[in-house]
Amino acid sequence: MPKHEFSVDMTCEGCSNAVTRVLNKLGGVQFDIDLPNKKVCVDSKHSVDTLLETLGKTGKAVSYLGPK
């Protein structure tokens, strides 16, 4: 599966839990959250636009950093 890296403005465990919740709800993804560096790496066949929209549901600032 393609791997994508996103920057998500996470400041605490609650933020990373929100990311976990929305990605698990989307389904079909494997991901790693790097809270200190505010990055999320996602393995998924979903489009980048779908992943951006999903991560945006957390209410955090999200940007696409590129393929990993």
Brief overview:
It contains two helices and four strands, in the order E-H-E-E-H-E. The chain is an alpha+beta fold. The protein has a single domain (3-67), classed as Alpha-Beta Plaits (2-Layer Sandwich), CATH 3.30.70.100.
Keywords:
four-stranded antiparallel beta sheet, 2 helices, 68 residues, 34% helix, alpha+beta, 4 strands, Alpha-Beta Plaits
What report would you give on this structure?
Belongs to the ATX1 family. One of its GO terms (biological process) is copper ion transport. This is Copper transport protein ATOX1. With 68 residues, the chain is an alpha+beta fold. The chain has one domain: Alpha-Beta Plaits, CATH 3.30.70.100. The chain is 34% helix and 35% strand. A hairpin with a 4-residue loop joins strand 2 and strand 3. The chain is globular.
Write the layout of secondary structure elements.
Elements: E1 3-8, H1 13-26, E2 29-34, E3 39-44, H2 48-56, E4 62-67
Antiparallel strand pairs: 1-3, 1-4, 2-3
Low-confidence stretches: none
Give the DSSP E fraction (strand runs of 2 or more residues): 35-45%
SSE string, helices as H and strands as E: EHEEHE
Radius of gyration: 10 Å
Identify the CATH class: Alpha Beta
Number of domains: 1
Helical residue percent? 25-40%
Instruction: Count up the helices.
Output: 2
| Widest beta sheet: strand line-up | 2-3-1-4
For the termini, the CA-CA separation is 11 Å
The coarse overall form would be globular
Q: How would a crystallographer describe the biggest sheet?
A: 4 strands, antiparallel
By CATH, the architecture is named 2-Layer Sandwich
How many β-strand stretches?
4
Under CATH, the topology can be stated as Alpha-Beta Plaits
Function: Binds and deliver cytosolic copper to the copper ATPase proteins. May be important in cellular antioxidant defense.
Domain HMA: 1-63
Family: Belongs to the ATX1 family.
GO biological process, one term: copper ion transport
